[in-house]
Design a protein that fits this description.
It is built from one helix and eight strands, in the order H-E-E-E-E-E-E-E-E. The termini are far apart. Strand 2 and strand 3 form a beta hairpin.
């Protein structure tokens, strides 16, 4: 008598355990596939804006004996270096919307006398340097690491 009663109870327990596991698996799967805002994996709210990005002007100026020629190398926004042969006085204005950029100009005069360079950011002079020489290799270098 005990055999049939014990065996029926055993099947009933197995059936309940299998049903509970199936229902649990269904809900765990449903939770895993649903979108839960988890800040640890990138679902955090967007960061507050630091401010409005404004246009920035970078002006390079090279001065020296009027009409003399010079070689200039300057940094464009984005880091590209431009080399050019120009007539002094020379000036170029570049515009960018980058938050930070490097700015710099190197000039080498082919004439005698003094040559100077300046870098202005948004109208404010950040650096100026004078160079002088007599052998035709007058050099001035102006660099602003963070403009």
């Amino acid at each position: 008598m005990m055999k049939s009663g014990g065996r029926g109870v055993a099947w009933w327990i197995v059936l309940v355990v299998v049903a509970v596991m199936a229902v649990s698996a269904f809900y765990v799967g449903k939770l895993r596939l649903s979108v839960i805002p988890d800040r640890a994996i990138g679902h955090s709210p967007p960061a507050p804006q630091a401010g409005v990005v404004r246009d920035k002007s970078i002006e390079y100026v090279v001065t020296g004996p009027e009409g003399s020629s010079a070689r200039v190398s300057y940094i464009e926004p984005g880091g590209r270096v431009v080399e050019d042969k120009v007539t002094v006085p020379w000036r170029v204005v570049l515009r960018t919307r980058e938050l930070t950029t490097s700015a710099g100009v190197l000039t080498q005069s082919s004439g005698r006398g003094e040559v100077s360079c300046a870098v202005r950011v948004n109208g404010f002079e950040r650096v100026r340097q004078n160079g002088s020489g007599t052998d035709g290799s007058t050099v001035a270098n102006c660099l602003v690491p963070v403009a």
